[in-house]
Amino acid sequence: MLISNLEFMTGKKVTKHLGLVQGSSVRAKHAGRDIMSGIKNMFGGELTAYTELLQESREEATERMIEQAQAIGANAVLNVRFSTSSITAGAAEIYVYGTAVILDDPS
Amino acid sequence: MEYQNPKLPENNVSKEHPIKEFSTLLIGTLVLVVVISIALSVAGSSLAGLIPYSAEKKVAGLYDMSSHSDNDRFPKIASYLQQLADKISIAQSLPPEMKITVHYMDSPTMNAFATLGGNVFMFRGLLEKLPNENSLVTLLGHEIAHVKYRHPIKSFGGGIAVAIAMTTIGSSADTNILGDAGLLSTLQFSRKMESQSDLEAMHNLNTIYGHLNGGAELFRIFKKARGTEDVGSTKSPSEFFSTHPQDEKRINSFKETAKEKGWSESGQLTPLPDYFNF
Amino acid sequence: MEQLIYVAVFVSLGYFFGRRAEKKHFKSLIEREEKMNKLPAMGSRMPPQDGKYDQVLVSGSVCIANDYFKTFVAGLRNLFGGKISTYESLLDRARREALLRMKEEAYKLGADLVFNVKYETSNISGQSSKKPPIIEAHAYGTALRKL
User: Which domain range does residue C114 map to?
Assistant: First the structure.
């Protein structure tokens, strides 16, 4: 599965557009890490707990998007966009969506 | 070029049933709360043990303990109990600043307890069941030993640590813990504390009378009261009994300790004074 | 104790009504999606090059509130960390509803395709973490009608 945020694939031709596919994930870290991050927030620096949290979320969301694309028979997802929103304190929502397409070698 | 929107699979929502997740989380939270409460209460009680007795006395002084007692109405009984308590204090070699104050309560509740600042409460309901002075000394010695080992402040400290944590989280904790009712009823001692006090009571019984006869009688009274449920009290008496080691065990440990230390188990029983009949 | 009873009542009410509403919503979403799939929506910014099209901006949005049960479970989940599955369905519903409304608008205009679809999601319950979330999903794109 090709994932790209370009609108086309160089050297390949889009033969079919299958519309939007999407994946989302909402996750939280346990309270202990929330507290540690709260303390660290006073001194600055990277909050590894939250970096990790968003990374995990992003991976899972992407996974789900790929699942959808596979289910409808696409072989690439183009023009992929990520969006992050805050739903509640300490939890992160990652949403990823793109256009599922079927790519073919130009003959 | 073809454009199409095929039907997408429903994979963005977890399949797990919400009730299942809810119950796992709830059980987990309860376990967490219990574990943290225990940890806090242990930490609180061991820290509270470091508070100097003079500070404890001051805290206890904030509440007018004597307003609860019926000492004025029964001066004879009160002074008799106080004399015994002073005798026991010497037998237990209490430090001089630990002054025991006995409060007699004219209530049918079968209870007796020690609280902050060396205040010991004795209830008529329990006293009227005692057959002789020896068992009274055992009971009083037991409560005084609680004071000696700082059990009230330790138990109080544990309770406060939990209460503070609860209020910080935002749930409604039993804010009564600092109030009047808190001082008089929430002090529950662990079994370990009770055994420690039992041993000390035995020790002073032997020091005062030279034998242990009559001491085990106290636990037989408890056992009987528990068996018949006829304890004629308004407050649940089981509250008092529940944390105390099982009566049978206490009677046995009485015998074992006597053997171990070579203390005599038989001897002359001292009767209670006449005015002690209710 | 009283508070505990209130919480229990609200959680169970939230569960029963929230679950019923959610099931109903998902059913209607699936039905309407089936109908609307004849009007394809694309994320691509490259419109088809074959012929002339009339273009107009279309959008759809929806606000969905969380029920007490979901908030409660999410609160517990926040203690332990991990996937907050009760919010997933909330977001999924909001986005799909927004996209459908956008497509329905495009359909009324007689469009053949919707291009460059973008989503916007926000929590409009305010910054307080104590308040249950209200999700707003907004989908917008350019509807194309063949001339």
Answer: 2-146
